[in-house]
Amino acid sequence: QFPAIMNPVLDSIDAISQECQSVLEEMPANPSPEYYPVLEEFFDINQHHLNVLGIGHPSLDRLCQVTASHSLHSKLTEAGGGSCGITLLPSDTSLLFVEAAKQYLCACGFECWETKIGTPGVTLNSLSSLNTQVLHMPYQS
Asked: Residue 25's domain is classified under what CATH number?
């Protein structure tokens, strides 16, 4: 409805995505903690832009508030049709800290799943793509 306002926001989201991709591509070769504050800022800016576009939700704002109270940064992700958020955990985050944050999030009504950046997500394999050994493996529940 307001292209002069919304197009620059979309351009900024695109620039953030490209910058994140550059940082994430550099991280495996040089796993420096210096990258995390940059990614955290990108998460925050991106989340604000998504709210400007009207695709945020009060529950995701609450998620961002809860994680910010634990010095973590979160944003909406399109997983789950937009009803999921992602929280960045710097590599030096202690497991006890992560568990405490997860417990607090669960107490606030959120569900938590851990994943890693750069790993495959959900994949769909057709039967024809599976090798014969896999097709003939017995099913165990």
From this structure: 3.30.70.890
